[in-house]
Amino acid sequence: MSPLELALVAALFCLLSGVPALWPRVPLFTGRRISGCFMAVGAAAGLGAALRVLLKEGPGGAYALAWHFPMGELAFRLDPLSAFFFIPLFIVATCISLYGCGYCSTTPDNRGESLVTFYFGVAVAAIVMLLLAANGITLLFFWEAMALGTFLAMCLEHDKPEVGRAGLHYLVASHGTTISLFVLFALSPAMGGPLFPPPGSLDPSGAGATAILLVALLGFGIKAGIMPLHVWLPGAHANAPSNISALMSGIVLKLGIYGLFRVLSFFGQPPLWWGALFLCLGIVSAVAGVLFAIGQHDIKRLLAYHSIENIGIIVMAMGVALCGLATGNRVLFVLGQAAALLHVVNHALFKSLLFLGAGIVVHGTGTRAIDRMGGLARALPITSAAFLTGSVAICGLPPLNGFVSEFLLYLGMFTGFATSPGSSAAFLALAVPALALTGGLALACFVKVYGTVFLGLPRSPLPPRHEHPAATGAMGILAACCLLIGVLPFSATRILEPVIAALFPQRDALLPSIQTTAGLVGLSIGAAILFLLICLLAVFYINRLKAKPLEETGTWDCGYAAPSAAMEYTASSFAGMLVGIFAAILRPERHEPATDKLFPGPERFESHVPEVVLDKGILPFLGAVDRRLALIRRLQNGQLNSYILYIFVALIAVLSLSYFY
């Protein structure tokens, strides 16, 4: 069986994975277990196909389906880029399916959960087929199928106004991407033909190439969540079920990155300003994304903004690679491409881990408000450890995987700064402090989150100390993958280099080795030593706690006779200084109590960081347009006679114009 046939089998099993959960005579738990088995079989087939292509054990192959559409026929092809994106897709999808067996264990009779399982399988199968698309009509067909499946899954609680609003934003953004793809394929007949053009076959110079790049950035940038095209993302991620949030953040966002990689591969050596544009967009997304994350009180909305931040890091790395390609700097090109591709996998792993952990927290506490949580490490110890692992990884700290991809990006930027011409070096020099600022702010944000949610005194009743083995097992697999890439980074280079060579085959013989260029062996040794030291310190600390007898004694209470959880720092107070520093960007809204009376009564304080682009820009603009068009809407009066008159007037106007032209 060829790798492409294996991939098609994987898509079929993913599609069928949601069917058992819908069967009315099958209990929900049993149906989910059967669905998980189907998903695991599909993932095994998909990963086998991907590894066969990436490890050069067999050709990917191409297949055209004899199902003709007005714009062409369905065509499929498995190449190294598609195979690479299979790896995070199937790992994350399998873990989400396993997690689903225990995520809603308190509601065994809720058939709505069965629908989520079904829509999840449909979405994963559509993503597989989308990655296999070999022409424009196939990509559009399965893009819409993916968007619809994800929309239905995220709108499980559609009766809630905020869920309906988030679903509407997501659907509008998805259709905006679809319209952009229609324009993209119309601008380039080669892209809309029977097959996508070969890598490096299109000329990047001229107005046509510029238009294609800008339309691709608009369409795929909406799906990826590049700021300021991200407006659908925070609400959708926050209001979807947590396992669907993990799918959207870990996989669906990456489809926008996949589209950008695919379009860029069609062109030869690009102009330098392409790389500069990607660098600037990446800097804005990374810095602004982490800033808005710091000001959030909703744990899932906070994680959603960190998705924007990490998409910005990926786009920055793509900009570094484009700068290297434009200037002929092979080392810069390879390091940038490797950083971008590896961070795609890394972000899929640790962000899915964080959303799954947040799902258990929200499920146990009944709230997404960080300020109402506290002390959950006692009730949810495994979830606490898994969330800590994801937090360290997303902050780019060793010895986990986030450090490796950011290390490659730093190394690429410093290399480019030292060896590239002046204009390219200037943009790279701007990106270095931006990435450092992003990392520092991300660390502050997750210190806030982890410290408030899992440490300290509980601010609400703790949930029962019960963690379902399926849910913790799924998080354990993702955490182990984060650790594996962090300790053995050179193991990933074998699947990165074929992708880079396939995207730009004209440079295949000239590409330097990632492992040699970045010194990944030394990095691996350092990460292994650090991991062993952490393990030894943890064992020493635990043994010391066990050996030391417990004592109860009074502590200095600063004059408070009975300290309580209400006196602890909240997430809002922790982030207050940073929000104040960047108030010009975040535009925080504060509703302070009135204390002008001698004996004021009960008051309340509330602070909120709005979605500035949506709430302060897009919605007011659309509201103004709506008011201006109110008179025109009166023409839509529902009377057939009026519509016939409109047609007659339009016909007379067209005939009159034809007389003059």
Automatic annotation (TrEMBL):
<keyword id="KW-0560">Oxidoreductase</keyword>
<protein>
    <submittedName>
        <fullName>Hydrogenase</fullName>
    </submittedName>
</protein>
<feature type="transmembrane region" description="Helical">
    <location>
        <begin position="307"/>
        <end position="328"/>
    </location>
</feature>
<feature type="transmembrane region" description="Helical">
    <location>
        <begin position="569"/>
        <end position="586"/>
    </location>
</feature>
<feature type="transmembrane region" description="Helical">
    <location>
        <begin position="81"/>
        <end position="104"/>
    </location>
</feature>
<feature type="transmembrane region" description="Helical">
    <location>
        <begin position="340"/>
        <end position="363"/>
    </location>
</feature>
<feature type="transmembrane region" description="Helical">
    <location>
        <begin position="244"/>
        <end position="261"/>
    </location>
</feature>
<dbReference type="Pfam" id="PF00361">
    <property type="entry name" value="Proton_antipo_M"/>
</dbReference>
<feature type="domain" description="NADH:quinone oxidoreductase/Mrp antiporter transmembrane">
    <location>
        <begin position="135"/>
        <end position="412"/>
    </location>
</feature>
<feature type="transmembrane region" description="Helical">
    <location>
        <begin position="6"/>
        <end position="23"/>
    </location>
</feature>
<keyword id="KW-0812">Transmembrane</keyword>
<feature type="transmembrane region" description="Helical">
    <location>
        <begin position="375"/>
        <end position="394"/>
    </location>
</feature>
<feature type="transmembrane region" description="Helical">
    <location>
        <begin position="643"/>
        <end position="660"/>
    </location>
</feature>
<keyword id="KW-1133">Transmembrane helix</keyword>
<feature type="transmembrane region" description="Helical">
    <location>
        <begin position="273"/>
        <end position="295"/>
    </location>
</feature>
<feature type="transmembrane region" description="Helical">
    <location>
        <begin position="517"/>
        <end position="542"/>
    </location>
</feature>
<feature type="transmembrane region" description="Helical">
    <location>
        <begin position="35"/>
        <end position="55"/>
    </location>
</feature>
<keyword id="KW-0472">Membrane</keyword>
<dbReference type="InterPro" id="IPR052175">
    <property type="entry name" value="ComplexI-like_HydComp"/>
</dbReference>
<keyword id="KW-1003">Cell membrane</keyword>
<feature type="transmembrane region" description="Helical">
    <location>
        <begin position="140"/>
        <end position="156"/>
    </location>
</feature>
<feature type="transmembrane region" description="Helical">
    <location>
        <begin position="207"/>
        <end position="232"/>
    </location>
</feature>
<feature type="transmembrane region" description="Helical">
    <location>
        <begin position="116"/>
        <end position="134"/>
    </location>
</feature>
<feature type="transmembrane region" description="Helical">
    <location>
        <begin position="400"/>
        <end position="418"/>
    </location>
</feature>
<dbReference type="InterPro" id="IPR003918">
    <property type="entry name" value="NADH_UbQ_OxRdtase"/>
</dbReference>
<dbReference type="InterPro" id="IPR001750">
    <property type="entry name" value="ND/Mrp_TM"/>
</dbReference>
<feature type="transmembrane region" description="Helical">
    <location>
        <begin position="425"/>
        <end position="450"/>
    </location>
</feature>
<feature type="transmembrane region" description="Helical">
    <location>
        <begin position="470"/>
        <end position="496"/>
    </location>
</feature>
<feature type="transmembrane region" description="Helical">
    <location>
        <begin position="168"/>
        <end position="187"/>
    </location>
</feature>
